[in-house]
């Protein structure tokens, strides 16, 4: 039965041109980010004092020119893509894991546990997280891992709320009751019966969380709090480019367009998945 | 309603306390202190400065002192800006944030709302598709990309508006427009959806059957219920405007409080960072309460009994 649900969803998704276009472009970007740095004769960290600020296509294989330190812009942008996508996906996994466990536990056990867990979410909603993450990264160094955890830990609140709502709706269904009568305990029930049935909504929100996380990482990098040079991310590239946009606009435009394209694709894909997997809204 | 408001206000106190405690714990757990790296001070001088700011006391004492001052609305002296209190810094900077953020929200509401209603009325036309694709684009382009691009086009390219600095309406316009950009897009999407939903409901069908002109239907009957989802979006939006102001102030060089934040944290200016964090927290709590009250006022189905 679940097979038919997914194949039906896939059929609906395929019919959605915006979502398929977004997904295809995304795939292309991912491939480019993985392959281009391997194919290019340049790396992302070697400085070249002979060739600073080259315009696109001016010299050798610097297809998009070079930056203020003579490093190849194409390779750096692709490395930025890798880092941004990696941070986005890894942090989203963290936040989905926390959110799903929190939401299912609250929804399934109910009662005082539910009240307590959701009250905590309410309180956390009023905490100004961005300042906290800024302080965290300023004070404890710019570890990539720390950025994952920090972003993942603050973006699970929405997912927890949505998952709890869905769990409440699922709880009264017969198969859950049957499993309970058969003597299944709460942890096994949550993992074996609730989570698989929530997969659709989880996939949707994971797809929509990734772009927010990428934006957030880019925001931190823009403030100079992200990954450290010579490693780079799209946000740091935009920040570097913005400083020199008057004379060398391509340094800003290349990473900015790519960043926007990635977010754009994820948003379209997420919207398409929502339409495909969540027939309520139609 | 009054009791509900009072209850919410009382409920905000523990949350603020939590925020203050978290910020305090985090700042003091970090390595380094505010007067550590300053040009090789004599140990005696450093000691006396630290004593002046009560940094030599045990942590729990500092914490209680801070909370006591906070209860009186005193956020303490800034460590980085000598002879200035955090209250003064906020009093100087915050009006700038309010002006930029307020203008941005106003632009977003008016423009986004209009676009949304327009797209809904022309459902599935090219206008609709084009505007909604533009809205997804607007959501996808981050603020720190929009802001420099706007400067590049309108200040450096066309010389219409000043590229930064502060003073007068012309300085307000570009930052506010940049800040409004993503919210305009969100609001347009939301407004389109809710307008479509309202237009499909029975009471609008009745109004149509009575032969009312479209304009009357929209203004008199459809607009108010269609605005409801916007109201609940405003809470998170206003919180986002706060963070956005950090980027905007950096890019446009505005004298608001967001720019103190990163430098404050870098320089271990404990009181300044805590003061701004608490202000942000209070702002979010207050705005959420305001949004909920507005919601109750707009939607007769929502009543806060207790």
Quick summary:
Chain A has 282 residues and is an all-alpha fold. Chain A has helices at 2-15, 17-39, 73-109, 111-125, 129-139, 144-154, 157-171, 174-181, 186-222, 234-243, 249-277.
Distance between the termini of chain A: 21 Å
Beta-strand residue fraction of chain B: under 5%
- Quick one: biggest sheet of chain B? none
Strand element count of chain B:
0
Rg from alpha-carbon coordinates of chain B: 24 Å
Helix percentage of chain B: over 70%
Descriptive overview:
The complex is a heterodimer of chains A (282) and B (306). By secondary structure, chain A is an all-alpha fold. In chain A, helix 3 packs antiparallel against helix 9. Chain A has helices at 2-15, 17-39, 73-109, 111-125, 129-139, 144-154, 157-171, 174-181, 186-222, 234-243, 249-277. The model of chain A has no long low-confidence stretch (mean pLDDT 80). Chain B is built from eleven helices and no strands. In chain B, 76% of the residues lie in helices and 0% in strands. In chain B, 36% of the residues are buried. The longest helix of chain B is centred in the C-terminal third of the chain and has 39 residues, at 214-252. Chain B is flat and about 85 Å long. Chain B is mostly helical. Chain A binds chain B through residues 18, 123, 125-128, 130-132, 134-136, 138-140, 211, 215, 218-219, 222-225, 235, 238-239, 241-242, 245-246, 249, 252, 256, 259-261, 263-264, 267-268, 271, and chain B through 12, 14-15, 18-19, 22-23, 26-27, 29-31, 133, 136-137, 139-145, 147-149, 151-152, 156, 239, 242-243, 246-247, 250-251, 261-262, 265-266, 273, 276-277, 280-281, 283-285, 288.
List keywords for this structure.
heterodimer; A: 282 residues; mainly alpha; 11 helices; 74% helix; B: 306 residues
